[in-house]
Write a structure and sequence with these properties.
It contains two helices and seven strands. It is of the alpha+beta class. Strands 1-2-3-5-6-7-4 form a seven-stranded antiparallel beta sheet, covered by helices on one side. The longest helix is centred in the middle third of the chain and has 20 residues.
């Protein structure tokens, strides 16, 4: 059963994340839900995010993937971190004129302070368009709270 994740930084002064801030006028404004082991985002591409005519830019796809992986760290590991490595396979172009894309991310492994996250991006026809593995360096909880504004309310 999917459960909406409330973004705890929405009213935080200075918060302007390109991926998930609801108030960034040029950002993606992603929202997230939790469904079992998955963090999921449905996002509607627009023509201002295209590379070629009616085609979603690969860099925007990478941002969607990276942001979903980050929310896995927030929600599943209850801390914050940063992207250490991303390996993306672009399998199929994504239309900017069809319906929303779906990004699904899940933790597949954790070794010491490294989190290995699988992320898949699907078009509105539920066809796999990009497949990625993200490696995140995660912070100890006290460091995440003190230095990176992690909020346990996530």
């Amino acid at each position: 059963m999917q459960q909406q994740i409330v973004n705890p930084w929405t009213d935080f002064e200075g918060y302007n994340c390109f991926g998930c801030s609801p108030s960034n006028p040029i950002g993606l404004r992603m929202n997230f839900e939790e469904d079992g082991e998955y963090i999921i985002s449905k996002w509607q591409p627009g023509d201002n995010f295209q590379s070629w005519v009616n085609t979603l830019h690969g860099g925007i796809q990478a941002t969607l993937i990276d942001e979903a992986a980050g929310w896995v760290v927030f929600r599943k590991l209850r801390t914050s971190g940063y992207t250490s490595k991303m390996d993306i396979r672009y399998l199929k172009p994504v239309s900017t004129v069809d319906g929303p894309v779906t990004v699904k991310a899940r933790l597949v492994n954790q070794k010491l302070m490294m989190a290995f996250i699988e992320v898949k991006l699907y078009n509105c026809h539920d066809e796999l368009c990009a497949d990625a593995t993200c490696v995140y360096r995660v912070y100890p909880r006290d460091v995440a709270e003190k230095e990176f504004y992690f909020r346990d309310s996530i």
